[in-house]
Design brief:
The protein has 11 helices and 10 strands. By secondary structure, it is an alpha/beta fold. It has 2 domains: 161 residues, Bordetella uptake gene, domain 1 (D-Maltodextrin-Binding Protein, domain 2); 106 residues, Periplasmic binding protein-like II (D-Maltodextrin-Binding Protein, domain 2). Strands 1, 2, 3, 4, 5, 6, 7, 8, 9 and 10 form a 10-stranded mixed beta sheet that branches. Helix 2 links the parallel strand 1 and strand 2. The longest helix is centred in the first third of the chain and has 29 residues.
């Protein structure tokens, strides 16, 4: 009798716990029940937009709900990313970011309406593109080592697609590692910088292979090295920086999928898993390679660790180089 009396409260407690847990579990199992929004904080047609759309269509088929891509450009991605940070953490809003998101944590410190790490639940990395270093064909610097030697005794001007861009920070990192100082000339995008590189108005620049390749092949500029641990399939003719004497130098632009902080873990994991499956399909891998991109796909914890490492790495470069948004 005593045992029976003792058991009843326990059974009642277990039942109550089950009833309390049921709505949360049922809600997670039911997701998604309406369209999902992927915010791209840049204009249509760029790397972020392209990589997001490549995974959004097959993801919609798997989840059985539309995945709507919304371009919300402004303030170097801050507008669209900020909108995501303040959206409900219900699994219906995600955002794709570039390395600028990691750089902004330091470059825009105290001015961001969100925390680059704590305001988000990292989901996965979609794709990467190792940067290529190129020089103007109008200067006698046919190799990485000769460029560095030139930079140590001459005024080396280098361009980038803008202050705090991956291309800018990659050259800052190279200067720190190799002990030279060049003069940064920021442009509003890659194409104006590339035109000045061809004309010889600047000496060098980093950018993605797909942007530089036509001019390298036409011999209008000189490809010096690729910032990767090994030569990627689309740049096998270029040595890595390590081959050129700069050890452990790998810099890529990347696209990363984030959700608002507090998004249910099971939803984050589901999206991450499905995105990874999509990216590992041979047809998708080949399609990305054709565009000069390496498919990625990693779990939430790996993505979080990668984002944190990128924030730390570029924060150190920005502080050491005394880089400000005003140049």
């Amino acid at each position: 009798m005593k045992a029976s009396i003792t058991r009843r409260p326990l059974l009642a407690l277990a039942a109550a716990s089950g009833l309390l847990a049921a709505p949360r579990l049922a809600g997670a199992q039911a997701w998604p029940t309406r369209p999902i929004r992927f915010i791209v904080p840049y204009t249509p047609g760029g790397f972020t937009d392209l990589s997001t759309r490549l995974v959004s269509e097959p993801l919609a088929r798997v989840l059985g709900q539309p995945v709507v891509v919304e371009n919300r450009p402004g303030a170097n991605s801050i507008l669209g990313v900020g909108q995501t940070a303040t959206s409900p953490a219900d699994g219906y809003t995600f955002v794709t970011v570039l390395p600028a998101h990691a750089a902004n944590a330091t470059l825009q410190a105290g001015r961001l309406p969100f925390d680059a790490i704590r305001s988000f639940s990292p989901v996965s990395v979609i794709a990467r593109s190792p940067l290529v270093l190129a020089a103007t064909a109008r200067l006698p610097i046919p190799s990485l080592r000769e460029m560095i030697t030139y930079a140590k005794s001459n005024r080396l001007t280098y361009g980038s697609s803008g202050i705090g861009s991956t291309a800018h920070l990659a050259m800052e990192l190279l200067q720190i590692r190799e002990g030279f100082r060049g003069e940064h000339v920021p442009y509003r995008g890659t194409q104006p910088a590339l035109q000045d590189l061809i004309a010889g108005n600047i000496a060098a620049m980093f950018d993605v292979n797909s942007a530089l390749r036509p001019q390298i092949d036409a011999r209008n500029i000189t490809g010096l090295a690729v910032a990767a641990a090994e030569r990627p399939p689309f740049a096998t003719d270029l040595p890595t920086l390590a081959e050129g004497g700069v050890a452990d130098f790998a810099v890529s632009t990347w696209s990363m999928l984030l959700a608002p902080a507090g998004t249910p873990r099971e939803i984050v994991t589901r999206v991450s898993t499905e995105v990874t499956k999509i990216l590992r399909e041979p047809a998708m891998t080949a399609r990305l390679l054709g565009m000069g991109l390496l498919s990625d796909g990693r779990g939430p914890d790996e993505t979080a660790a990668f984002l944190s490492a990128e924030v730390d790495r570029w924060g150190e470069v920005i502080r050491t180089g005394r880089i400000t948004v005003d140049g």
